[in-house]
Amino acid sequence: MNKSFYLSDVKATFGRFLPLANKLGYKDRFLIAAGALSSLLFASVSSFLIWGSYGSIPLLVAPMGATSILIFALPSSPLAQPWSVCFGNFISASIGVGCATLLGHHPFVASLAVGLSILVMFATSSLHPPGGAVSLLAVLGGTQIEHLEWYFVLGVVVLQSTCLVIIAAGFHHLRKVNYPQSARLSENLHRTGDPQISARLGVTSADLDVILAKHGKLLDISRTDLQTLITNTEIQVHRRRHGVIRCSQIMSRYVVTVKFETRLEECWQLLRTHKVKTLPVIDDQRKVIGTISLIDFLKNAGLDVYHDFDLRLRQLLENAHRLTGSRYEVAGHIMNTSVETKVDDSDILELVALFTDLGLHSVPILNSSGELQGVITQTDLIATLYRMQIDKPLDT
């Protein structure tokens, strides 16, 4: 009995040294490697174009390799944000050069430079692990680095760090990855003091503040992504307990639609007759190319200006085309082309943020080919969630 206990304890101890499972797909791995490669090439070429005639200036320094891994593999990490990359490396290089100039090029001086760099990076919220290597290089980099002195800071470290960040920003934009991470909290749709509706339920920012304060450790993940993970986990728990309801199960299938060439007068009448707030605009293949709503009429009629508001509104209600003039005649001229849609097999819980935080009134539902299949409104979702609550089995 004791023997098996000790064996399991040994296995648990050594198991901590085994690598964690990597959930990243092979495509993403190759893309990250390609991004790091391209950014380092861009940094070295930029250094050559600027300093090529000066053979003593290195076109690429070793810490940039570590920086490239951080900003491409961990773009959500606070340690990989542009401020941390550029300013953290700048601080570290400056402290390293300063220590070497005052105290000489010695391993003890290099250790001191790294320690000071960490303290200053913490103080300026610019902690960047490769900065430690930058400090070491500034002190122990040999005659080539010693000769550069303060040129090493701006001419090498800051230049190459900036090049890496530029390529990373473009690379992640193409992959639709949020980089740089925004430190600004999302605003309430109505621009009032209340938090967004979704933030009033479940885990709130105040909850995160309390837990992070108790945790007392650095997290290699942005606050935004942490809250997103928690919210998605809550949704997954809800699915496990109550099952999944697909958009196809609750959507309205008989949708009033218009086309690009539909006259504005007809669009206005459809909105009034069917008492809907939004009309999907589709093409001949039933692909959604936009939406048209009352708000689009108001904006394009110039009703966002208070002067003569009542007169303009009266004219709009009497005859829409008199306000649109020759420039705006059909739906395609004033439609909103930025449309949020969902696929018919999506979980209805994915609609919550669209209706609450984005303030949408309806969401077009598409099939796997992108053809319009139906529409789900706020009313549809509220009724379904209410029904789910009623049908929930009582706790025993």
Automatic annotation (TrEMBL):
Top-level taxon of origin: Bacteria
Pfam family, any one: CBS
Stretches assigned to coiled coil: none
Transmembrane parts of this sequence: 30-50, 57-76, 82-103, 148-171
InterPro entries (alphabetical): CBS_dom (IPR000644), CBS_dom_sf (IPR046342), HPP (IPR007065), TM_HPP (IPR058581)
Protein name: HPP family protein
CBS domain: residues covered: 251-309, 335-396
CDD domains: CBS_pair_HPP_assoc
PROSITE patterns: CBS (PS51371)
Record key words, sorted: CBS domain, Membrane, Transmembrane, Transmembrane helix
